[in-house]
UniProtKB/TrEMBL annotation:
Keywords: DNA-binding, Transcription, Transcription regulation
Entry similarity comment: Belongs to the LysR transcriptional regulatory family.
Organism encoding this protein: Acinetobacter qingfengensis
Protein name: LysR family transcriptional regulator
Lineage: Bacteria, Pseudomonadati, Pseudomonadota, Gammaproteobacteria, Moraxellales
Pfam families linked to this entry: HTH_1, LysR_substrate
One annotated Gene Ontology cellular component of this protein: cytosol
InterPro entries cross-referenced by the UniProt entry: HTH-type_LysR_regulators, LysR_HTH_N, LysR_subst-bd, WH-like_DNA-bd_sf, WH_DNA-bd_sf
Domain HTH lysR-type span(s) in chain numbering: 1-58
Molecular functions (GO terms): DNA binding; DNA-binding transcription factor activity
The keyword Coiled coil belongs to this UniProt entry's keyword annotation: no
Nucleotidyltransferase recorded as keyword: no
Amino acid sequence: MTFVQLEVFSVLAELKSFTLAAKQLKISQSAISHALKALEQQWNVRLFHRNKNEVEITEIGYELLIYTNEILSNSSVLTQKISDFHGFKAGKITIGSFGASSSNVLIPLILKKFTVKYPNIEIFIKEGTDKQIAQWLTERKIDVGFVVLPEDHFDTYPIIEDIFVALIPKNLTLSQKQSITLKEIVQYPFLMTAAGSEQHVNQIFRQANLNPIIKCHFSQILTIINMVNNNMGVSIVADMALNKNLLELYPNVSKHPLSPNIKRSIGLAVKSKNYLSPIIKDFIEIAQSI
């Protein structure tokens, strides 16, 4: 087997399309088919169920994919170490981001410093939920990912602390209060985030033995704010996902701290600190310095 074949297997498993895989790898679809066929013959297994141009990974394929991504990740680390030795500072990194707090706030701040030091590094951002970040780390689909701490399954590095806040329509008398309790929140239709903070908002209510009246789930913070602005309900979001200029665009939305105040700690996670490339180490150090 070759690294090209392994990369074809990994990319095809993620994109589930010969056309998209060929486009990303910048090779022909016939080359994709040839590499996959050679790998299946060598391993004597069927890696995908084929349906015209689309594919679905088999059970044994999924098991082998984890080890394949591990090999590709270690190969990337090796390439970066050799590149560093020669002073090239080249390569690529893939970062997992769980929502507006990391995508809109933290990543731009980090990359502003990181790209000055590593102008030749190609950067990929994969955005998903907390669960997806954990899965991508396990499967080596990302090199490093943003997580809410504590996170016991990976090696982690604390970055910053944030708080949760309530978003209330200004026409409600509740909006006149300095801070909002969870007991007050559950008396109104609740707009639940379906992005990075969902499991933590759910946990906040569970710990208080309260059940919000969930009206809708939204994956985009802007949609939640707009719904609150139109008197469709109240919500709880991470304060870092907001900024003053953003809320100024929605005159009927007021932001309030929760009472008691509820914090969260955001960090970076890697599958194992024993296999970090120099570039990922620097990325983490820069992140901790912002």
